Amino acid sequence: MVYFAPDSVSWEPLGAGHGDWLGWLLAGEALPEFYSSVRWSHWSRDVAELSPTHGVTVYPFLWSQEAHESADLSRRPVPMHEILGISREFARQVTGADPRPLGSLPDH
After folding, report:
1. Peptide bond into 60 cis (omega under 30)
2. How far is CA 77 from CA 46, 48, 86, in A?
3. Could you say which of 25, 45, 58, 77 has the lowest number of CB atoms within 10 Å?
4. By the 8 A CB rule, do 87 and 61 touch?
5. What predicted TM-score, i.e. pTM, was given to this entire model?
6. Half-sphere exposure of 60 (CA within 13 A, CB side)
7. Does pLDDT of 103 surpass 80?
8. What's the short name of a Pfam family annotated to this entry (predicted)?
9. Is 34 strand, coil or helix?
10. How far, in Å, are 52, 80, 91 from residue 69 at the CA level?
11. What pLDDT does 53 receive?
12. Cβ neighbours of residue 37 under 8 Å, at least 6 residues apart?
């Protein structure tokens, strides 16, 4: 299993097969720790208000040095098709590699 990491805009191995990953996911105990570096104090309230076709974009972008040096990050809801598109484009620019399609979602 691999994971497209927003802080490196690249695919990273999870070190587990599908069965182990699914068990880990369903147990739910490690999930908060896994995402701890990208969560903010009111994240659960903010994401509860999102529709299934939206996600949260962060600026400065999580892969940038500025994001690691600043506690003042801007977050806003954005359609997932935009997040997937910009993530793919930044992966090309930052890593020089095309991560291939990250998925597709309707525009609305």
Report:
1. yes
2. 9, 11, 14
3. 45
4. no
5. 0.73
6. 10
7. no
8. DUF2625
9. helix
10. 31, 26, 21
11. 92
12. 7
| Angle 3-11-42 from CA coordinates, rounded to 5° | 50
Q: Is 9 exposed, middle or buried (0-12, 13-18, 19+ CB in 10 A)?
A: buried
The model's pLDDT over 58-74, given as tens digits with 9 standing for 90+, comes to: 998 888 888 877 778 89
Do residues 87 and 4 lie in contact, with contact meaning Cβ atoms separated by under 8 Å? yes
The tokens describing 14, both together, are 């999870």
Please state, in angstroms and rounded to a whole number, the distance separating the CA atoms of residues 50 and 47: 5
Identify the sign of the CA torsion 14, 90, 82, 72: positive
